[in-house]
Amino acid sequence: MKAEVILMKCPEVNRIYGVRVEERYDDWFRTWAFPIDERRASHEGFDRNEIKGNLDYTDDYNGCPYCKSKRIVQCGRCGRLSCWNNEERITCGWCGLSGDVTTTEDKLNVRGGEY
User: Fold this and answer.
1) Are 84 and 74 in contact (CB under 8 A)?
2) Rounded to an integer, what distance in angstroms lies between the CA atom of residue 30 and that of residue 109?
3) In terms of residue numbers, what domain contains 50?
4) Which of 28, 34, 66, 80 minimizes the number of CB atoms within 10 Å of its CB?
5) Which helix (H) or strand (E) holds 43?
6) pTM to 2 decimals?
7) Mind listing the pLDDT tens digit for each residue in 53-91?
8) What positions does the domain TerY-C metal binding occupy (predicted)?
């Protein structure tokens, strides 16, 4: 089984967190989320991991360690992930882009990046 850690950001508290993802059935699933600071995330190389998949979550996935949301949204500008609490309009915690939330059936291309 292949597993990676990717980074997400909670826009409610403007803090990053790590999410362990596992490859199962030719797709990726979120299995566990945990708080992490930027220095440690960079040191561990979590900002460089890349995956492509739907990023569904497992039954025991705990959600964002700050707001507890299990839903995510991907920014159309920077491509990074944030938790989502069903707002119709959001501002990306990573790059500051504001816009309406739209859904897609496409698989997500997720990669780390600079803070």
Assistant:
1) no
2) 14
3) 3-111
4) 34
5) helix 38-44
6) 0.85
7) 889 999 999 999 999 999 999 998 998 999 998 889 989
8) 33-111
